[in-house]
Amino acid sequence: MNTTMRWGGWGDPDRAATLSDSIRGLLGQALGVEAPGAPIPADLPLEPCRIPADVLALLGDVSTSHADRLSHLRGKSTPDLLRIRSGDAADAPDAVARPDSHQGVLDLLAVAVEHRLAVVPFGGGTSVVGGLVADREGFAGVLAVDLSRMSRLVSLDPVSRTATFEPGVRGPEAERLLAEHGFTLGHFPQSFEYATLGGFAATRSSGQSSAGYGRFDELVVALRAATPTGTIEAGRAPRSAAGPDLRQLLLGSEGAFGILTELTVRIRPVPEVRHYEAWTFEDFSEGTAAMRAVAQDGPAPTVLRLSDEYETAIGLSRPGALGSGAGGCQLLIGFEGTADDVAARQSLAADRLRALGGEPLGTGPGDAWAAGRFAAPYLRDALLDAGALVETLETAGFWSTLPTVYETVREALVDALVEQDTPPLVLCHISHVYPTGASLYFTVTAAQGPDPLAQWDAAKRAASDALAAAGATITHHHAIGRDHKPWYADEVGPLGVAVLRAVKSTLDPTGILNPGVLIP
Amino acid sequence: MNTTMRWGGWGDPDRAATLSDSIRGLLGQALGVEAPGAPIPADLPLEPCRIPADVLALLGDVSTSHADRLSHLRGKSTPDLLRIRSGDAADAPDAVARPDSHQGVLDLLAVAVEHRLAVVPFGGGTSVVGGLVADREGFAGVLAVDLSRMSRLVSLDPVSRTATFEPGVRGPEAERLLAEHGFTLGHFPQSFEYATLGGFAATRSSGQSSAGYGRFDELVVALRAATPTGTIEAGRAPRSAAGPDLRQLLLGSEGAFGILTELTVRIRPVPEVRHYEAWTFEDFSEGTAAMRAVAQDGPAPTVLRLSDEYETAIGLSRPGALGSGAGGCQLLIGFEGTADDVAARQSLAADRLRALGGEPLGTGPGDAWAAGRFAAPYLRDALLDAGALVETLETAGFWSTLPTVYETVREALVDALVEQDTPPLVLCHISHVYPTGASLYFTVTAAQGPDPLAQWDAAKRAASDALAAAGATITHHHAIGRDHKPWYADEVGPLGVAVLRAVKSTLDPTGILNPGVLIP
Q1: In which residues is FAD bound (chains A, B) (predicted)?
Q2: How confident is residue A153, by pLDDT bands cut at 50, 70 and 90?
Q3: Do B395 and B425 have their domain in common?
């Protein structure tokens, strides 16, 4: 695998997706897609670097090359990709620094404070919420701090089952390093192949196996961050009653409070067996009830994912077979562990699902899902090429509120796009469950209108208003960035905002860290 | 049960413990206890209330009665009880207010800001870390805000399995209210019979069934607090990626950031079956390894508790049978749930424990433990009467550090008390486990010296220094209060302290909330 992320789209260019005839047919017939979308340009011109040479000389390993600046331009949301396709590179950093130690990060921050540089911590560059775009006004330049040189496994404690990593290690490399010792982290979000552990922590990432392994914020037992006012560390024990949990203040801080330089995470033995199977339910309501029963009463699965009728019909759960879906609602359930344990849980779950109306579909769809689980972003690039607008959004709420959240968000998305003469396909699945609630993940596809950025913006605003009105959170695992700030401000309230600003002022008094991101 | 807490000791006077001859013999022979300790005085004189009548008139339901002020004097640590026995009532609040609503608390706080009253939120009054003693200097008076009138079950959501409570509801009443709907909270700390849900949240309490039900900070899914600058709320979903988790900033805030006025907690169906059984291991090291295996690889127990050789020998796990212990180390394991599920887990656990060197002792010791699980504080009063000094302390760390923490804390306690010519009995158990670590809970008994307060202070300081040097946390479930502040400051570091102060300044700019508690 080519590990360098393509700057104009997702991932490794050699793995680019092509659309099948059935998908092309669907785009034309169901969505009215007629003309191709704007292509990815061969190159983008950049403004000259604004950071003076004498300041650059203070930044250690730093690059102002065109290629480096372009590859640190924004994240990977559909709006980010549309801006590239429209030729807009205005947000590119002026330079890219690559520190190789905690002290190196502290030194960089000191220079940034003195010379008024906005600092954007950069891990895998996979943000989908504008988390990598800093305010430029009032700054002498924007410096991306690329953490790829800080990607070591610092230590591993097999007794406590913890491992300490530097923040720049990507998902596959972390798994490779742990596997040498017989362990796994078990954190597999869709961005897994490119995203870093520091990014997982800074954005409260949740992986596809979160039912079994937990969210990333549950996996972090200790952390260290470099801030403009010094070093902050937290986590002397798995849990403590020593005041507020400061780990949980730095997790989700999106580079606005400090740069995470070390993370100690819970690890587990590599499972003997991985078993994924699918079930079908008559409708989303019946499937949701079954899913809730498993989440609340067990047996605890490792993966649990329920597609609504639309997503099941379109077969998006199997990107390689789009358009070949079925009726009802498909539930995917997976178990990992020892052979005995997986067999016992699988059997108990089968009894429970059958009693709640489920029909087994066997392991075929489960294995297909597992094989294609990181492929969807490649498909998006191909759909954008073909003239479709495609984007996702997600939320979470308590079980009793989810039906309302589902209905109103779906309706808001449909209405907002129908109003623009681009009736969409809106698909949804539940992919992260808790005893008290779950997340909803929507995928929206429509024909690109004349101004696809404004088109999506209207739909996203309508959906965000709807989920907030229903009492759900603006994001379950994508974070706030710049895109979610208005709803975030409302969600935490004026006192919550005041608290965040007070913490920010303490750790970053001159406001150089990711300005414009997270803090309303 | 008499639900009014005895002001001079623990709990219901009708349930006072008496010491058996075997305990009295042990005190004399093993510890050199000769003379009885200072008794609980029949009454204590109080300074006149300092709050002027015109200010009192603004406080709604408020009392300055001798009985009310005395019953809100400090918490229930051994030093607190020794101060009472020495006739020291200097920390009594000037008045006790009893608000009955969130708005009522906001109104009280406004009066307190305007008239410079120090405010001590008061739930069950069971703090053992000085969490109920406010700085008096610079204040016109100290006002205890007793939350006993705010003890309602506000709502219950059986679908999401959550319940919303006011903060002043005590453990047994919360369980009674939930049981009417077929649910349980499952939070059973030793203080259960008197402590309140607000107190559990403010101190990050952990119950004896934490292995199965989780710590209280894991049970809270949403909360509301009244602060001098307004209302703050958090928790729209079980989990969210919307910035730092502000719930975790208010949990453990010990009344220094605000007064919790509403808590939404996770609830579970009342278990069909509760099964507790005991096992014996050759030594603490073997028992700890077995305990870790169960904590890391399952099957998940509801209760898991391992006594060291000393605690096993003394039989403190069965307060009614003190002195009748045995050799080796006793492990208690409990399962709650459906009959099938309990049977399955019990059988798997038995296989695992046997393979790791355990010998089964049957359900007798388990049932005895369950019957006496809230009785230890009664025993302490009787021991203090008899002239013994008895107190507990606790910590937590990662599994690989626990042996060092155990050895060095034990040694520090023994050395510090031997140096004072009062060689102690030091007992220890592990009673809260996580995949990555566990807590250690020490019980120390010695003959009272001439100045038992100074005597314990020296032992506690030595133990706290030792556990901090070994890298453990200053408290796993007792909180910071006033007693742990020096070690807490070191644990969170200067930047952590600065963050806490910044949050405090934002929510409580005039510093009226529990001044002197928590914030270093």
Answers
A1: 121-127, 203-206
A2: very high
A3: yes
CATH value at residue A315: 3.30.70.3450
CB nearest to B246's CB, from A206, A236, A499: A499
Cβ distance of A499 and B249 shorter than 8 Å: yes
> Which of the 8 DSSP states describes residue A72?
T
Mutate to test the interface with B, among A126, A157, A160, A164 (most CBs of B within 10 A): A160
| Domain of A124, in residue numbers | 40-146
Residue B507 contacts A where some CB pair is shorter than 8 Å:
yes
- Residue A415, pLDDT above cutoff 60: yes
Question: B103 Cβ partners below 8 Å, 6+ apart?
Answer: none
- Whether cis (ω within 30° of 0) applies to the bond prior to B48 is no
Report the chain B residue with the minimal C-alpha distance to residue A219. Answer: B436
Give the full edge-to-edge strand order of the sheet including A95-97: A62-63, A95-97, A141-146, A117-122
Residues of A in Cβ contact (< 8 Å) with B439: 237
- Tell me how many residue pairs between chain A and chain B have CB atoms under 8 A apart: 268
How far apart are alpha carbons B144 and B256 in whole angstroms?
13
Binned at pLDDT 50, 70 and 90, residue A32 comes out as very high
Tell whether residue B230 is among the known ligand binding residues.
no
Residues B157 and B250 in one domain: yes
Is the same domain home to B365 and B435? no
Tally of domains within chain A: 3
Whether B250 sits inside 8 A of A238 (CB atoms) is no
The reply to whether residue B518 touches residue A243, judged by beta carbons under 8 angstroms, is yes
Asked if A183 and A268 touch (Cβ cutoff 8 Å), the reply is yes
Taking CB atoms within 8 Å and a gap of at least 24, the contacts of A16-19 are A16/A378, A16/A381, A16/A382, A17/A319, A17/A375, A17/A378, A17/A379, A17/A381, A17/A382, A18/A382, A19/A382, A19/A383, A19/A386
The residues in A 66-95 lying below 8 A from B, measured between CB atoms, are none
Q: Convert the pLDDT of each residue in A38-62 to its tens digit.
A: 999 999 999 999 999 999 999 999 9
Measured in whole angstroms, how far is the alpha carbon of residue B412 from the centre of its chain? 23
